[in-house]
Amino acid sequence: MLPRDTVICTVGTSLFFNLRTAPEVPPRIQSAFQGTEWERLGQELAKLEPRDRLCGAEINTLEELRTKSWISLERIIFLVSDTEEGRAMGRVLTAYFKARRDIGIRADALIYRVIEGLQDERPREFKAQGLRNLVREIGAQVQKFGHDRVVVDATGGYKAQIAIAVIMGQVLNIPVLYKHERFSEIIDFPPLPVAFDYDFLGSQADLLVAFERGALLTATELGEVDEKLRVLLNEVDIDGETAFDLSPVGQIYLMGYRLRLPKQAPTLTPASSRTPPSFGSHHYPRGFEDFVKKVWTENGWIQTIHSLPYEGQAQIRKGISFRVQQVNGEPALVGSFKPDDFGARFRVRLENEQPAVLSAAAVALNDRYQPAPR
């Protein structure tokens, strides 16, 4: 197995704390720090012994990672907070490693990413946006470089930031390393029995995709909330009414599904025979038949589609959605179309209707046809 060559590093501000509180700071370093000359500060720090505590947690731990035989330090992605100090740390750290000629990391392989909303002045934004954006960014980097090439250094940053990185590493099967200031060496988190139940994903696919895109839905709009879904949501008060959005754990749930699970890819198995959609003799919402025909035409893995009776009309949510639910006592992929106060449902038939395939199809169709939240 080849060494892992990409480190995703959560970043705090221990360096700045050290420079403010250390009894002795080299004058050239102090001058660059006080003058907010961030690139020069990085260059001056590169002249110190990298294990010097003055350099801060990020530099100290990355230096220790270089001693690991299973890591080849060729790319570093620094995840910094959405603050002035966070951005400054990004500039200092990239300048520092550019100046470390002994390591030889290419300049374009030193990246810092500002995690929008990850700040400590607005707690709700930190929770609802910052931590979710952290999940998205880690997921994006894992998807870009491959989970077999990535390691997470979760030493720096907010405690919640470190916790999220740890959970993501466990769910995505990525090594996560951490070093407390009192530890003599960096440690890796042992594998934990952390797993999500994806069996119910299909039954909530429309809601989860909507939440993933940023939807904020009231209790009135949602109706009764499945308990398994509730644990993936934040509950907030909006003008006296309870509303829900996706929690950081919910974001990890979906990211884990999209990145790690074996792909049950209906789009890769075109139906061997196809029959155009059929409709009963009911009155349908305007545009319903055109939409159903569009879905069938654009997805060659769909065998056929047929309309469903009007039972459960009151449960149809406004808009377009797809989910797995029981029809005649068996799991079925059901779509709904409700442009206003009147809606209709239809069943999407596949050649392979195993539950995992139905769930994958529900997610794919919601991704493609569900309108973005207002």
Notable characteristics:
alpha/beta, 37% helix, 13 helices, 4-stranded antiparallel sheet, single chain
Description:
This protein is an alpha/beta fold. It is 37% helix and 20% strand. It has 13 helices and 13 strands. It has helices spanning 14-21, 27-34, 38-45, 57-65, 84-99, 123-145, 159-172, 205-212, 219-222, 227-230, 248-259, 288-298, 355-369; strands at residues 4-10, 71-80, 110-114, 150-153, 176-178, 187-188, 217-218, 233-238, 241-246, 304-307, 319-327, 330-338, 344-349. The strands form three sheets. Strands 3-2-1-4-5-6 form a six-stranded mixed beta sheet, with helices on both faces. Strands 10-13-12-11 form a four-stranded antiparallel beta sheet. It has a three-stranded antiparallel beta sheet with strand order 7-9-8. A hairpin with a 5-residue loop joins strand 12 (330-338) and strand 13 (344-349). Helix 3 crosses helix 5 and helix 8 packs across helix 13. It starts with a strand and ends in a 5-residue tail after the last helix. The model has no long low-confidence stretch (mean pLDDT 89).
